[in-house]
Amino acid sequence: MNVTHNENSITISHKGRTVFKHDSQNPAIFLGVGDAEYDMYRGNFKITDYVTERLPLRKCVVQEQAGSYLLTFSLDGEPTLEMSVVVTDRGRLKASFKALDARYNRFWIRVSATAEEKVYGCGEQLTYFNLRGKNFPLWSSEPGVGRNKNSYVTFLADTKDKAGGDYYNTNYPQPTFVSDKKYFCHLETTAYADFDFTNADFHELQCWNIPEYLLLDAEESFPALVENITDLFGRQPELPDWVLNGVILGIQGGTEITLNKLQAAKDAGVEVAGAWCQDWQGKKVTSFGKRLRWNWEWDSEMYPDLDKKIFELKEQGIRFLGYINPYVLEDHSLYKEAESQGFLATKKDGSKYVVDFGEFYCGVVDFTNPEACEWYKGVIKTNMIDFGLDGWMGDFGEYLPTDCTLSNGVSAEIEHNKWPYRWAKVQHEAIEEAGKTDDILFFMRAGGTGIQGYCHTLWGGDQLVDWCIDDGLASVIPAALSSGLMGNGIHHSDIGGYTTLHGCKRSKELFQRWAEMNAFTPIMRSHEGNRPDDNHQYDSDAETLAHLARMTKIFKHLKPYIKAASKENAEKGMPIQRPLFMHYEQDNEAYEIKFQYLFGRDLLVAPVYNQGEVEKEVYLPEDEWVHVWSGETYTGGWVTVDAPIGRPAVFYRKASKDAELLKGIASY
Amino acid sequence: MNVTHNENSITISHKGRTVFKHDSQNPAIFLGVGDAEYDMYRGNFKITDYVTERLPLRKCVVQEQAGSYLLTFSLDGEPTLEMSVVVTDRGRLKASFKALDARYNRFWIRVSATAEEKVYGCGEQLTYFNLRGKNFPLWSSEPGVGRNKNSYVTFLADTKDKAGGDYYNTNYPQPTFVSDKKYFCHLETTAYADFDFTNADFHELQCWNIPEYLLLDAEESFPALVENITDLFGRQPELPDWVLNGVILGIQGGTEITLNKLQAAKDAGVEVAGAWCQDWQGKKVTSFGKRLRWNWEWDSEMYPDLDKKIFELKEQGIRFLGYINPYVLEDHSLYKEAESQGFLATKKDGSKYVVDFGEFYCGVVDFTNPEACEWYKGVIKTNMIDFGLDGWMGDFGEYLPTDCTLSNGVSAEIEHNKWPYRWAKVQHEAIEEAGKTDDILFFMRAGGTGIQGYCHTLWGGDQLVDWCIDDGLASVIPAALSSGLMGNGIHHSDIGGYTTLHGCKRSKELFQRWAEMNAFTPIMRSHEGNRPDDNHQYDSDAETLAHLARMTKIFKHLKPYIKAASKENAEKGMPIQRPLFMHYEQDNEAYEIKFQYLFGRDLLVAPVYNQGEVEKEVYLPEDEWVHVWSGETYTGGWVTVDAPIGRPAVFYRKASKDAELLKGIASY
Known about the structure:
The structure is a homodimer. Helix content of chain A is 22%, strand content 29%. The mean pLDDT of chain A is 97. Chain A starts with a strand and ends in a 5-residue tail after the last helix. By secondary structure, chain A is α+β, with helices and mostly antiparallel strands. The longest helix of chain A is centred in the middle third of the chain and has 16 residues, at 370-385. Chain A has 13 helices and 37 strands. In chain A, the strands form eight sheets. An eight-stranded antiparallel beta sheet of chain A has the order 6-7-8-9-17-14-13-11. At the A-B interface, β5 and α1 of A face β5 and α1 of B. Chains A, B: Pfam families: Glyco_hydro_31_2nd, Glyco_hydro_31_3rd. Chains A, B: Belongs to the glycosyl hydrolase 31 family.
């Protein structure tokens, strides 16, 4: 840390980066007062803020105390905010904040920037990868349908369901960014935040409380930086070995259908790692499509004999996965149990509070109550793990209403963004307590600061069964890259997408392109979508099935390679899907590539994300790259390769120690 | 004025209304700093503001000086703003502002309110009449196509042309409102403003400079209030007598077509007051439709012999009207003339600045230059009045770009909202100097503070040829009522609407309903729309023509009644179209009726504005009302009457001194 200051002016730099510049003409911190309205409709929020005050803290008195600095900011002589700056034992710059006047509930801080700087992260971002030039409201919510106000599907979703979303909507926001200057910056708050990267000289970070602290550290390389970040936020465990044996097929409809479909898939040569039956606890039909019965126990009518079949399948090498989320369906057994013990969030007056999930209503398990957590862990252990489930989708986490009351007394506005973390922790601990951390797969879409250490894997959320850039196949690539830089190294997506609404129906081509991409992600898993009958499915025809079979063979072929990457992720936080600049930091172009990625160190993947495209323009950073299908070697720059269905644009590094294995992809 | 104050607390009331309440905990004035971006695309603005400071001026020192008060506000002891409060000779409360620190460019003031209070005005508002519960950005612009983000046509207009607009978009904003507590409040500024009526205890008025003053006055009745308002802003002259002789037919295409159409209309029994040929100066074809050649002189090729025919028509009792706006088409004669004399707005460096009007580009005549005004008045007098035109559409006025440079040195951001006023003044003075104030009709859509004294009549702008509430037939009713309360007592609209885009085509039914309504407005005028071939026209079939003929006969029959109302408007600012509460202030329901109006004192008009409707539910304030068609008398409340095409829901007051005349409507 280097600090220079004189009267009313201070500059702080850390490891050679200027971090903070303040003087009375250009104050770096503002406090204010705002009155927000949160209008939630089924996980979609309309949030408005009436900011009545925004005060520049122009005056700053600096006191040095044995290597740390106490900055006292004021507006009019009356001290208003203390900022205490230290370098932590780990070598990070930490600036802690203390408001001296409790009336302020809005906070802005300007982190120094340069005009050409690029920034990434902010959780899982699906539209932008380099975030510079936009602001990013950070509030966990439904990700939006279409996510682009210029798209017709977004218009329909907005007008029918308030659900269209915009470029910044995400299940997983995090007030942390990574700069191409090889530093990360984290603001410790779970309040609503908005990171504004539109200014040339600074990044303005806003949050709706006084944050605990700002943490910043720089490294000499990006790999060192993600190691540092995951040292802070936690690291995911290694993927269970069985996940890499093939695809996890999303199947619904009961035991017989599941067994028949598994047999048919195997007969067609599909490598199957598991069956994921999200309706294992039964169904409920609504106008959105078939919805699940959110009372987390085996539905023995819909899945007769599953208690036995689940173990028979396991012996055949096929795992059975289910589904859970942090809500319990009104009037069902778990709801009643939770309610009777006071384990549900309530209204202010202690009365019943249920959340509308679209024609059905649920209680919110109050994870701020340790007993409620224990109880829910018990549900997971008894009803799911002991029953034989080897994994599940740990859905939702974004719907904590801001006007409910929680047992820890903290405002739900502040708890809202923390809920995914709490939800991940409950699941992780249930698994850990069952001694199954290395064998159970669970995947979440919601996230926030700290899920890295608890949420084992992410999936990209509910993409449209569509080609649209902001909410289709393409969007999961920046999603994987941004969340990977935050320390979530294992990411995947529903093969073929999920949301089947407003006329969108999954085509065969889309399914195939998505399957091809997902063979080069850490997990292959299919989903029927919310309206399965409208969608092309993996088994809709023999050609699709054969194509999938081949992709699962490639995936299984890559098992040792992915397994090693998963180990590296567990040990050093190195994401399995990586931006090109992770290993090619000298390459300027690499910083703007958002629809390609490195898969492990030595594979470069450029998914076809446009309908009808059979050639692919690919950017290769300077290296020796072998196109897996033609065997042709390229040395860098933009190249065009044939990429018909079945031959996704994939390259391996000639110098890879796994070159033989990677070359083998072409044998399928 | 009544002022009570002690340390840091002051309350000001005027004529029994509490106007201003301030104390250190609830400051009434805020100053701030903002950095706005104005992105204009063809008159549609995307405006964003980055407010870096908003400071509550908590401290207030009051000095009394012979009946006036000087309030000195400060944030931190350093005086920041002076507010000098006096009662003017006219008895109005006037609070003048003086910033003591030039750095502030954002201003907020809270005017005291009560929770149940209703407010109106803010210029010409097309979606809301009672403005309470919303905020109203006040910036002159295109009014928007559809004007409702939930409508598909708005979506199309937004995505194709950035033109969809929203509830507040208007050609004519004015920072003035009228309260149901019978006071008006005006903020003297032409900067961007935003009046926020969402708070229970106050109205928060924002503007993007330090306003000169706030002016407020109350009266015992609404008629006295509009008299007061128009005493302030000016009053329109009486309508030319000939306007009340019949319809002004919107015709295009040349002399022969015009003469033929006029003859055919007369043959069909249509009472014709004039022909309005907006293409008298020739045309230009673009993808939007046929656009006019903006070089304001007779096109003798398109309109051969018009120089003679115009006087022949006048002898037959038919006036000829043209078109002009404040822009001159690049590379044409007027442009060259203006440019050579320095009469056009320029870029900052003095170089050429043209505005994109949709595939053609124009210079902006610089009305801040008195010589440019004189020159443009000369163009109007010579090319239009002397040529024989008896009226015109004085189009536009909203497109002053914020980044152009003007001769008076004032920022175009500040001049933008003043431009319609300047444009009205140029036209008025040209007419006045020609001695034709009582004989020439010109109509504008743009407006702002002070146009009342210069713009003789308004038309409602470019409605969709459609039934939609926010931009169709219905929308011109609140437009007439709101602008009427601001002192613009003569309002009308294009019969059948104008904007023919995105699949909207004018139907026969819409045309007929609109014609029926406009027979009960001060001016009847038809428009072919921007794509005439897509629209049903007044002469598309014999039935339409006969229907129009009958409506023009009714209109002409009402001539003495309308003429008297026009006189009252000229003398006392009493609008011809009036909200029901104007004369029924005890009637609570009357304050929320936005799609009915009083036409003069004694007619109540409830236009059918829904497709297919043949019965009309009408609200009648307590009085004796005679339904013109059935002769049935009603005494008040909600009633339902038959309203087939040809029998619009119109009632006259039984006690009217014009009862015989009004009864005569039924004879047509």
